[in-house]
Design a protein that fits this description.
single chain; about 950 residues; Rossmann fold; about 20% strand; Asp_de-COase-like_dom_sf; 4Fe4S_Fe-S-bd; Prokaryotic molybdopterin-containing oxidoreductase family, iron-sulfur binding subunit
């Protein structure tokens, strides 16, 4: 014992002065010494051990240089995992696809998953520790942390508070448990600006326990959504969109009925058979009336909303195949009413099931307020912010930055030197999910392993490794994850580990359904009185920025939002009636005030928005996002109160002047022509019946004739196809000034059109790539033969011939050709060369660009078939847009093959050619949207 005592004195002289150290504390300190000694390895000198098995290509038998590899992993979004496959070229991740084996993606992706490639190569990511604005080495960080940690061990964590975003990681949760044992007096706080607290509170009220709700839209005959966006904002949004469309494709069943009750337009509302527009403050009374109508089957009072009886009848008729879904922003009482309705319908076990929560419980603004009170009272001596950016995302009435500066010691783990890093004394670089080990549960509890697709690009630590240090373990993310699953699998670990790495999914890990019943003593009660003053101010995640995490991602900044088509900024969305009352038009500046706090914002007049209300999206107005995201848009968090973080009351004041808004809808759309077609469920045809004559001779295609069919009945306008095309084809970001001139470079756009009543319009989406016209008007006018027809029917661009006359663009009736006026690849918006797809040419300034049907993928599949001495099979070639689509709205293939999927769709009675009367004979055709009789007309 004396020898050990001397060791402790030499290694921890500050701890040796303690009056007494028991054996348990001594062992903790010794393990801390070994763990902290490995922190210096974060300088990247031993980064090879973090490389995935599949990316160590030089050790792989049969590996062919230049042939990309695929790594299965999981990416987080608000704490939940989505399974993806990462295409890796010579150790460089260049493209992300969905993992078909993963229940949250089913082979599809959302825009955030696609954009993670650009985030990985973000040059503004942190690369070294920083103390009070001064870069430090990892050795200096180690030397600083060691005595601090020893002091906390002796004090059992007294005064230590840890703030982190929500997580579903089994490994992180295991490490959190170990850290809690090491520091039993420490306080933990879990905060996310996009929380599910209202739904959790409702579950506690109805079932007496916290549960996650999983919807099965393939089993639902009638779906009523109350607020929110089932196809964009729910943890299982990709799966829900896929299930809903699969249900619509079932030939042996009637079409499902989708009703959307909402105050702000959404993707699910755009796809609904009927939209019911009400103000946010009316949801509680509306849902209460719906619950009573279903239970009592009685006539509604004269002042009840006319849609209630109709919705109640539809739900009763569907019975256990009826489903009511409340959005996360609605009050807990509305969620409780929705759960009660589902229970009365018998939907649990059919269209909905309850499972154990996949994530650590999110405390939301209330937990953050408790932390703020502790800091203000001086009870916080050490603060660790373990990821996220809470200084930026905190409610307006919590000045978290000022409070953090009052803490004696604060440390932030994050990917960027953001607003939170600036407020903390220490900033530690955090690893990107594509370069670190971990695991994540999906929305249904299924676990996906997170393995790195590349070695760390910078010296970084993952959250798992940071907590491993705190718990006295070594800095090795892979070992930390393996410990978790070795404990779970025992002797079967080796085999299951290898299989799970390859599949990206741990088989059989989904959460089983819980047998629950509603509390017999629960009564719905009366609705709260509706306030009469002020307008409703609604906060929502941004479809491009989410909560602000992607503000420095140029792909997402320039991605047109699904409904407004706005880029590089946000706006305050108001209804046409509200705009008329205030005398406003899109672009007019207003001061929007909530509880005395004011933010200046431009107005966007939004058809279908509830009157007397305004919607603002989160994620803009960043000050320390990076060179891309700084000073873009306005900060909605500046007026977001902690007591009512989703829906509150506010006021509008007209200030005069205008704020530029860049929207791409009118840049290339075909407004005013016969473009989007609809058919009733029993209608025979949407296509032209007469084949028009042509001056051009027909060309016999001997082998393949590539074509595409886009089902407008399946498209939900999510934009996954647009950003997938951008990532696959090295498409440049041009910046807000160039977009304002109509010079965006996207090869694929999704046009949004309205029809019917402007107050409550029908919304239609139409993806428009190059039509690959058989009789292409662009080809005959090119003076240098730069755009030509291939032997397989593709309209090709020969870049080194193009001299930039743009006559082809002038002659294109679909406006799908892009001209790179400037050297966009040489600007600050440029993606890293490491992110470029080497199979696709990087275009220089002064040439036309357009969709190529991903000709590089056709060539790769053809080469593989020749090597194996076989013919190409249907479905073997998938374009990037097709592969990303969650609803399989895009089908590509060989129209020379009469049994191919695309050939079958082109024989469908709903198939039609866009602007077919021009007789360009496009290879891309559309299937008309099926419009039920209850849709607004």
């Amino acid at each position: 014992m004396p020898e050990v005592r001397r060791y402790v004195e030499a290694e921890f002289p500050d701890v040796a002065q303690a009056s007494s150290i028991d054996r348990r504390t001594l062992l903790k300190l010794m393990s801390a010494s070994f763990a902290l000694g490995g922190l210096a390895a974060c300088n990247g000198s031993d980064a090879s051990k973090n490389a995935p098995l599949l990316s160590q290509s030089h050790n792989m038998p049969g590996y062919t240089p230049g042939v990309p590899l695929t790594v299965a992993t999981s990416l987080p979004l608000n704490g939940f995992g989505r399974g993806v496959l990462v295409k890796v070229q010579e150790g460089r991740p260049i493209k992300i696809e969905g993992n078909p084996l993963h229940p949250a993606s089913l082979g599809a992706t959302d825009v955030f998953a696609q954009a993670e490639i650009l985030s990985l190569y973000d040059p503004d990511r942190s690369g070294s520790p920083i103390q009070n604005g001064i870069p430090r080495s990892w050795e200096e960080l180690t030397n600083f942390i060691r005595p601090v940690r020893n002091e906390l061990v002796v004090g059992e964590g007294r005064g230590l508070h840890i703030l982190m975003p929500p997580t579903s990681s089994p490994t992180l949760n295991r490490l959190i448990g170990q850290t809690r044992q090491l520091f039993p007096l420490a306080q933990w706080h879990v905060f996310s600006p996009i929380d599910d607290n209202n739904r959790q509170a409702a579950a506690m009220e109805i079932f007496g326990r916290n549960v996650d709700l999983i919807y099965d839209l393939s089993q639902a005959d009638t779906i009523v959504t109350l607020g929110g966006d089932l196809f964009a904002e729910e943890p299982g949004h990709l799966r829900y969109a896929a299930d809903y469309q699969n249900r619509r494709r079932m030939q042996d069943k009637d079409l499902p009925r989708l009703f959307s009750v909402e105050a702000r337009p959404s993707l699910v509302g755009a796809r609904a058979d009927e939209r019911v527009i009400i103000r946010a403050r009316e949801f509680e009374a509306f849902t209460l009336s719906l619950a009573f109508a279903i239970e009592a089957n009685a006539e509604q009072p004269s002042d009840a909303h006319p849609a209630i009886s109709r919705l109640a009848n539809e739900l009763r008729r569907s019975g256990s195949h009826g489903l009511v879904v409340a959005g996360q922003e609605l009050p807990a009482h509305v969620h409780a009413l929705a759960l009660s309705i589902n229970a009365k319908l018998g939907a649990f076990g059919t269209a909905i099931r309850a499972v154990e929560p996949a994530r650590v419980a999110v405390e939301g603004a209330q937990g953050l307020r408790e932390l703020a009170e502790a800091m203000e009272a001086g009870r916080v001596t050490h603060l660790i912010v373990l990821g996220g950016n809470p200084v930026y995302t905190a409610p307006a009435d919590i000045d978290l930055a000022a409070l953090i500066r009052r803490v004696p010691l604060s440390m932030h783990l994050g990917q960027h030197r953001d607003e939170t890093a600036a407020a903390c004394q220490w900033h530690v670089p955090e690893a990107h999910p594509l370069e670190s080990w971990g695991d994540l549960r999906a929305f249904d509890g299924t676990v996906g392993l997170r393995q790195p697709a590349t070695m760390p690009l910078k010296p970084v630590l993952s959250a798992e490794e940071f907590l491993g240090l705190m718990a006295g373990q070594n800095v090795d993310g892979r070992s930390l994850v393996q410990v978790t699953w070795r404990e779970a699998w025992g002797d079967a670990f080796g085999e299951r580990w290898a299989r799970s790495l390859e599949d990206g999914v741990i088989d059989g890990s989904a959460s089983p359904a819980i047998d629950i019943s509603t509390r017999v003593d629960w009564q719905p009660g009366a609705a709260d009185p509706i306030p009469s003053a002020g307008i409703d101010v609604m906060f929502a995640p941004d479809p491009s920025m989410w909560d602000g995490s992607y503000a420095n991602n140029g792909w997402l900044q320039e991605l047109p939002k699904p409904l407004t088509k706005q880029v590089w900024g946000n706006a305050a969305l108001i209804a046409p009636e509200t705009a008329s009352i205030f005398g406003l038009s899109s672009g007019d500046a207003i001061d929007l005030s909530v509880e005395g706090r004011v933010v200046r914002a431009p107005v966007w007049v939004m058809p279908g928005h509830a009157p007397g209300a305004v919607t603002v999206t989160l994620g803009y107005g960043r000050r320390q996002a990076g060179r891309i995201g700084n000073d873009i848009g306005f900060d909605a968090y500046a007026i977001r109160p902690s007591t009512q973080p989703w829906i509150t009351a506010g006021d509008i004041r007209i200030v005069g002047g205008r704020v530029p808004i860049v929207s791409t809808q009118q840049h290339h759309s075909l407004q005013g022509r016969d473009i989007v077609r609809t058919v009733s469920p029993d209608q025979a045809s949407a296509q032209e019946t007469e084949k028009l004559p042509s001056f051009y001779p027909e060309w016999p295609y001997q082998e393949h004739a590539w074509g595409m069919a886009i089902d407008l009945d399946a498209c939900i306008g999510c934009n996954a196809c647009v950003i997938a095309c951008q990532a696959e084809n090295n498409i440049a970001v041009v910046g807000p000034e160039e977009v304002a001139k109509g010079r965006e470079m996207h090869w694929l756009r999704v046009d949004r059109y309205y029809g019917g009543n402007p107050v409550s319009p029908d919304t239609y989406f139409q993806p428009v790539p190059c039509m690959q016209c058989e009789k292409a008007p662009c080809e005959v006018v090119c003076p240098v033969n730069a755009t030509v027809h291939s032997s397989e029917g593709l309209n090709d661009m020969v870049y080194n011939r193009c001299i930039g006359t743009r006559t082809c663009s002038n002659n294109c009736p679909y406006k799908v050709r892009r001209f790179n006026f400037l050297d966009y690849q040489g600007t600050d918006y440029t993606a890293s060369p490491d992110a470029m797809n080497p199979q696709v040419t990087v275009r220089d300034r002064g040439v036309m660009e357009k969709c190529t049907y991903c000709v590089q993928r056709i060539g790769a599949a053809r080469a593989e078939a020749r090597i194996e001495d076989r013919h190409l099979q249907d479905g073997e070639v998938m374009t990037a847009c097709q592969q990303a689509c969650p609803t399989q709205a895009i089908i590509f293939g060989d129209i020379n093959d009469p049994v191919s999927s695309v050939s079958q769709l082109k024989k469908n009675s709903r198939n039609y050619a866009l602007l077919g009367h021009l007789n360009t004979q496009p290879r891309t055709t559309y299937l008309a949207r099926i419009k039920a009789s209850t849709e607004n007309g």
